[in-house]
Amino acid sequence: MYGIGSPVKPVEAHNLEKSFGQVRAVRGVSLHVDRGEIFGLLGPNGAGKTTTIRMITGIISPDRGRVYIMGYDVLKDPLKAKSHVGVVPEISAPYVDLSAWDNLMLAGRIYHVEDHMRRARAKDLLKMLNLSEAMSRKVKGFSKGMRQRLLLAMALISDPGILILDEPTSGLDIISTRMVRSLITDLRREGKSIFLTTHNIEEAGILCDRIAVINKGRIVAEGSPEDLRINFEEFRSVKIILDRDLKGIEEALGSFDVLIQGRKIFITCRRDEVDEVLRRTMKLAEDLGARVEEVQTTGPSFEEIFMKLIRGKER
Q1: pTM of the entire structure?
Q2: Every domain of the chain and the residues it spans
Q3: Nearest residue to 36 via CA among 189, 163, 168, 197
Q4: 23: buried, middle or exposed (CB in 10 Å: 19+, 13-18, 0-12)?
Q5: Which DSSP category does 262 fall into?
């Protein structure tokens, strides 16, 4: 076995690299998941999240680097490594011509769960995920949220210590999203280690104890949501509401990050630049005969921090 430090970490990835033809999808990614934490890999679509997860779960091999699960090398000892993990890939589906119960029984056999334990575990999981009444129905009649909950149950049938989830709430309705998020936090309370990917900034801030932000195949920041906010304390978010829409705002404030939503203007700048932002905006409004109705200045939101990181504009 291999492990860095004591005790062995549930998941460790070291200097992972992966290319597809001329495209370098992952570039030197290193990360780890601690025991009993929810770790999130956050990034925009195409940033390298799914490729990283596929290397960690052994679906594809890295061009360089190593992955260890509970100290076992995923390439050299795949069966031992994977015995500790339940996985829900982003693109996956239960067998639609089988019932929810039969899907769980099949998953239990794949994970070599003994028959009596498999049945007991399946009943508990179906109840936990609000699928008991649908257990005998074929999956082809399930909603997307029900299928996602069933996939979670299938990943948990062997009671793994580590759960790896790729975009677990993508495309789900509000009720299913809340149910999945609640289950994830409950599993963490039970002591399970959870590694998830998401492009949902709100979800990462709500669920995760620690986050790594990936962009263009590289980790550009890592820490708790609060740590990331502290690192950006010098920035301020300025919200200005005008009495009507104005053209030319972005040109007038070209050196700052500007978002226009009708009469609302959102600007991210440094603390010492707030007065300049307000001066420029007030002058433009005055020149064009508009009136400023409201001004608010706060610390940057998690979404604004995320956008600065992936745009490479940390100044």
Answers
A1: 0.78
A2: 11-225, 233-299
A3: 189
A4: exposed
A5: T
SS3 content of the chain, % helix, strand, coil (to 5): 35, 30, 35
The b-or-e profile of 244-265 (16+ CB within 10 A means b, else e) is eebeebeebbeebbbbeeeeeb
List, in order, residues 6 or more apart from 33 with CB less than 8 Å away.
9, 10, 11, 12, 39, 162, 193, 194, 195
Residues 293, 242 contacting (CB under 8 angstroms): yes
Cβ atoms of 204 and 19 closer than 8 Å: no
What pLDDT digit, counting tens, does each position of 254-285 carry?
778 888 888 888 888 888 888 988 988 888 88
CB 63 within 8 A of CB 18: yes
Q: Which residues pair with 295 in a beta bridge?
A: 240
Burial class (CB in 10 A: 0-12, 13-18, 19+), 221: buried
DSSP string of 66-132, one letter each residue: EEEETTEETTTSHHHHHTTEEEE-SS----TTSBHHHHHHHHHHHTT--HHHHHHHHHHHHHHTT-G
58: left (phi over 0), alpha (psi -120 to 50) or beta: left
Judge: domain 233-299, CATH 1.20.58.100. no
Same fold, 11-225 and 233-299: no
Residue 59 CA to its chain's centroid (Å): 19
Q: Please write the tens of the pLDDT for every residue from 92-132.
A: 778 899 999 999 999 999 889 999 999 999 999 999 999 99
Half-sphere exposure of 196 (CA within 13 A, CB side): 29
Strands 264-270 and 235-242: antiparallel
**CATH class, range 11-225:** alpha beta
